Here is the input.
Amino acid sequence: MRDVAVALRPEFEKRQAEIIDMVAASYAQRFTEAELKEALAFFKSPTGQKLVTDRPAIVQQAVQNIQAWSAQLNSDAMERIRVEMKKRGYDL
Here is the structure.
């Protein structure tokens, strides 16, 4: 199996260009050449590099925070519903 994968690798590596072209087309539809050059300059800067490096941790932390917030919001909403329903004679 490994031999087959190794043998086929060059064939599929050539197809990486297809993905690159698709992504490039998506950017080209939304940005001018000047904007892309500005973005590239930014991502080559220390701040841009830090953004790229730290982005996974930022996204992970944001997702965790949103999940905790969502759980608390759900709990608060359910409690408010119980209180309001109790006022109307329903005990949930």
